[in-house]
Specification:
The structure is a single chain. 28% of the residues lie in helices and 27% in strands. The relative contact order is 0.22. The strands form 2 sheets. The protein has a 9-stranded mixed sheet. A two-stranded antiparallel ribbon has the order 3-4. Helix 2 packs across helix 4 and helix 4 crosses helix 6. It has 279 residues and is an alpha+beta fold. The chain is built from 6 helices and 11 strands.
Length: 279
């Protein structure tokens, strides 16, 4: 698909991957602060995507729990998003991983009917063939260390995308369950008054916000999809390649592939293919 998109681009045909969380204003502001050098060299990245929608062992089977349909479980379903976000915010790539995957509930009731995330249990059981949770250590291309976690078994966490990035000059922290807020620590502040600054990302000069409500009026999950369409249409009108590209999506898949290979090989340190089109 990436090769086809590259060939089509030569004829003016554009393609884009929908990593919608990139379009959350607080995430866009975090990327801007990193690009401006406000946190310096990236030293630590902590990234977690936590949900609890299948923590109940009686929750029925769905296509998301079958490897031949979903490819992977929490790793590909939600882990892909935090891999993309951290690479997007830092401007760096994951170069290697040491990983563990776990399936906590290996048999589930078959669904009485399809059509929802939770569903209703019916007769019989099916075998879960994907991971329920993924954890991995990683190294970024700039030398920073990282930890990643993706799970659908974190009771009480509904859609918690938690990111913290520590640099040589400052730090950033974000949680999607408080999506209009970004926390920023400026290492240049005097010790007597230094602390994380809570930035409510709803001002007109924040990314995307000028197109919406008066200052201080928060945005929601759905607004990021509108921002995605705006970015796509704007790039098409300008004759530019919209981002993220298919190559960006494939780069994330190579990280996930390294995670799966590492987990299958006793968590052995496993390099990530750096050029997403080299394999």
């Amino acid at each position: 698909m990436t090769a086809a998109a590259d060939r089509a681009a030569a004829h003016g045909v554009r393609a884009m991957v929908g990593f919608t969380y990139r379009r959350v204003p607080a995430i866009a502001l975090a990327r801007q602060l990193v690009a401006e050098g406000r946190i310096g060299q990236v030293r630590h990245v902590r990234a977690a995507y936590l949900q609890d929608w299948i923590a109940d062992p009686e929750a029925p089977m769905s296509w998301r729990l079958e490897a031949d349909k979903a490819g992977s479980g929490a790793l590909g379903d939600i882990g892909a998003h935090v891999v993309d976000l951290t690479q997007h915010i830092t401007g760096e790539t994951v170069t290697g991983v040491s990983a563990a995957l776990e399936t906590f509930v290996k048999e589930r009731p078959l669904p009485a009917a399809a059509g929802s995330l939770s569903g209703t249990a019916g007769e019989g059981t099916g075998t879960v063939t994907v991971d329920d949770a993924a954890v991995f250590l990683a190294r970024f291309s700039g030398g920073g260390l990282a930890t990643f976690e993706a799970t659908r078994f974190a009771l009480g966490r509904k859609n918690a995308i938690r990111l913290e990035i520590n640099g040589s000059l400052g730090s950033l922290a974000f949680d999607f369950e408080d999506m209009n807020v970004l926390h920023f620590f400026d290492g240049a502040d005097p010790a007597a008054t230094a602390g994380f600054r809570r930035i409510v990302v709803t001002e007109p000069d924040h990314p995307y916000v000028a197109g919406w409500w008066p200052a201080g009026h928060g945005l929601g999950y759905e607004h990021a999809f509108t921002h995605q369409v705006v970015d796509l249409v704007g790039a098409l009108a300008a004759g530019e390649q919209p981002t993220p590209s298919f190559a960006d999506g494939l780069a994330v898949q190579h990280v996930l592939d390294a995670v799966q290979r590492s987990a299958a090989d006793r968590s052995t340190w496993t390099p990530v293919v750096l050029d997403p089109r080299s394999s």
